[in-house]
Write a structure and sequence with these properties.
There is one protein chain. Helices cover 30% and strands 21% of the residues. The protein is α/β, with parallel strands linked by helices and 225 residues long. It has a single domain, classed as 3-Layer(aba) Sandwich (Rossmann fold), CATH 3.40.50. The strands form two sheets. It has a seven-stranded mixed sheet with strand order 1-3-2-6-7-8-9, with helices on both faces. The model has no long low-confidence stretch (mean pLDDT 94). The relative contact order is 0.15.
């Protein structure tokens, strides 16, 4: 693995000596604090001992925003589903995610007890990195996001995660990451053999309580006692 510095992250534990980890990546221009208050809203049982990590993305110039420097997981080149993401930056973020997963395993968390998720850009990286991760993960969560570089996925997907559970949710009124991008991503994942728990909500580019509660049920399902 490339020698990258471990990304700083907000860390929240729901109980002593956690036996599972959820790594959740924020969206463009946000930071780990932006999603760190979601934990109570998930409605997880009090008996679950989960470590939540909300890492902060590096700052970089974002082309689609006039080169403005902001926290981002990759550069956005164009407002187009197929030519949107800077793949070099995407691969760099994948390495960052792999390092976070490796650190959790060193802390005693089994790889089958690690969930990787995110919102918007973060959700796209969660899918990209998680589907290619060489050891089995518990599940993937993608909120208001899409599959990056779908043509490469059949060749690059890891056998270990060829049937990893996936939770996807999208707002039908989303005008940032368009709803049909998310729906097309879900369909191509299903075409290639993944089972996707798909949720559509009457909202824009954001999150609502019903969606967060559904995500909590998914986490509870893939991280049984």
């Amino acid at each position: 693995m490339t020698d990258f510095a471990l990304l700083p992250a907000v860390e929240i534990e729901t109980g002593p000596s956690p036996d599972a980890t959820v790594i959740f990546l924020h969206g463009l221009g946000d930071d780990g604090y932006g999603w760190s208050d979601v934990v109570p809203a998930l409605g997880l049982p009090s008996t679950m001992r989960v470590r939540f990590l909300f890492p902060h993305a590096p700052e970089m110039a974002v082309t689609i925003n006039g080169g403005y420097v902001m926290p981002a997981w990759y550069d956005l080149l164009d407002n187009d589903f197929n030519a949107r993401a800077d793949l070099s930056g995407v691969r760099t973020s994948r390495v960052h995610v792999d390092h976070l997963i490796a650190r959790e395993r060193k802390r005693g968390i089994a790889h089958q007890r690690i969930v990787l998720g995110g919102f918007s850009q973060g959700g796209a990286i969660a899918l990209y990195a998680g589907l290619r991760h060489p050891v089995r993960l518990a599940g993937l969560i993608s909120l208001s996001a899409y599959v990056i570089d779908p043509s490469s996925l059949p060749a690059e997907a890891a056998q270990a995660n060829c049937d990893v559970p996936i939770f996807m949710a999208h707002g039908s009124e989303d005008d940032v990451v368009l709803y049909h991008w998310g729906e097309a991503s879900r369909l191509l994942l299903e075409r290639d053999g993944w089972s996707v728990a798909w949720h559509r909500y009457p909202m824009g580019h954001g999150a609502i309580a019903e969606e967060i509660a559904a995500m909590g049920r998914f986490i509870e399902q893939v991280l049984p006692p």
